[in-house]
From TrEMBL:
One of its GO terms (molecular function) is tetrahydrofolylpolyglutamate synthase activity. Pfam families: Mur_ligase_M (PF08245). PANTHER family: DIHYDROFOLATE SYNTHETASE-RELATED, FOLYLPOLYGLUTAMATE SYNTHASE-RELATED. Belongs to the folylpolyglutamate synthase family. The lineage of its organism: Eukaryota, Viridiplantae, Streptophyta, Embryophyta, Tracheophyta. Residues 81-232 form the Mur ligase central domain. The keyword Nucleotide-binding applies. The gene is DHFS. Keywords: ATP-binding, Ligase, Nucleotide-binding. It comes from the Eukaryota. GO terms for cellular component: cytoplasm. This is Dihydrofolate synthetase.
């Protein structure tokens, strides 16, 4: 059903009202809190941080955050998107197709243009999450966030906290499906905690040499990092470079899809 919906739908970008931070002074504490955390979008990503290696980001932190908040990521199905180019437009395309078919969709992308609320689109309208809803969630979970940051010795990042809040909102709003864009790479990205049972499909878009050092130094290592979102037994639509990098059909059995299925996305 989801697959046929994706094939049939039309792309229409939702244009909800956009307001700057100055329009929502009640969110100042929320923004100040995020600004107090490590933000790799601003500081730059360490060498090798996006690779599935000892240099990679620690997904254990994200799993512990999820456990602290009741594993909200287990309460919805997800389409997970990785790639260098076209991730955001692909997420918007899939989300709007599903909305035209009547699904309530949560869409998570990054970065934003005017307000961080643009990163979270909710429901059948596809409008950015409201300032009130986001701020209310922040106030509700802040004591637990403070404790988590303390227990992790201050190592929890801006992206990990905001991803946690996004998954909580998707669970609270009972979305039918979430369309989730990976932030960096795939294998060690904070979004890559969706289990195979919760994954409706993985999509890998075209590749390029952005974040080259963070992703291992070559297009092949970039492809391998992006391919980290592929889950056993789940549908996947990869670019042809991904297929070459993971040496299909030699690796086919280990990652759980046939060469034909990978090529056609079926």
């Amino acid at each position: 059903m989801l697959r046929s919906s994706i094939r049939r739908g039309l792309f229409t970008m939702p244009l909800g009202p956009t307001r700057t931070l100055s329009s929502h002074p009640e969110m100042k504490d929320f923004h100040d809190y995020l600004d107090s955390l490590k933000n790799f979008e601003k500081s730059g990503v360490p060498k090798g941080a996006g690779t599935d290696s000892h240099d990679g980001f620690d997904l254990g932190r994200m799993r512990r955050l999820m456990e602290r908040f009741g594993n909200p990521h287990s309460k919805f199905k997800a389409v997970h998107i990785a790639g260098t180019k076209g991730k955001g437009s692909t997420a918007a395309f899939i989300s709007n197709i599903l909305r035209t078919e009547g699904y309530s969709v949560g869409c998570y992308t990054s970065p934003h243009i005017l307000t961080i609320r643009e990163r979270i689109l909710l429901g059948r309208s596809g409008h950015p999450v409201s300032a009130e809803l986001l701020n209310d969630l922040f106030l509700r979970i802040k004591p637990d966030l403070d404790q988590a940051v303390k227990e992790e010795n201050g190592c929890i990042s801006h992206f990990e906290v905001f991803t946690t809040m996004t998954f909580l909102l998707f669970a609270d709003e009972n979305v039918d499906i979430a369309v989730i864009e990976a932030g960096l790479g795939g294998a060690r990205d904070a979004t890559n905690i969706i289990s195979s049972s919760g994954l409706a499909a993985s999509v890998i878009t075209t590749l390029g040499e952005e974040h080259l050092a963070a992703l291992g130094g070559s297009l092949e290592t970039i492809a391998m990092a992006k391919a980290g979102i592929i889950k056993q037994g789940c549908p996947v639509r990869p670019s042809m470079y991904i297929l070459a990098a993971i040496a299909l059909p030699a690796n086919t059995d280990s990652i759980g899809f046939s060469e034909a299925a990978a090529t056609t996305g079926s």
